[in-house]
Predict the 3D structure of the following.
Amino acid sequence: MLDPTDDPSPFYLRKASMDDFQFAEALTRNNMGGYYRRHHLVWRSDLFLASWRESENFILEVDGERIGVLRITEEGDSLHIRDVQIAEGHRRRGAGTYLLNTSHRWARARGLSELQLRVFVDNPAARLYQRMGYRLAGPRLAQLGSIRHMSRRV
């Protein structure tokens, strides 16, 4: 895997440990809470923990402060981006773009052909994903009408 710190940037991405789990869950639950309420979904900590255990998890830092989470899984010929979460006050400063670019580089280095993610239909991050080349991928994993499945070629 490529070292994401090879690129000069204010961001430092490191592999997460179980010590980071509480931060990651709280950030994700806080960021996604409004979407869950609007779309009548219930947050389940047990499902987040199960997903955490199955994923490669990373913590994004700036000046030693944890500001974000990236969670990925590799399935077949695809790298699935499970979470890109950025803390309030650190958004719109390039952190999400940094995590998506890093994911793309990793997928290419692993010889994968595609990246995939899911996003709530009313999440403004979908515009970032589209700018970065992600397109609607159809209904194959979007079981809920409130979630869109997107992919891009590597």
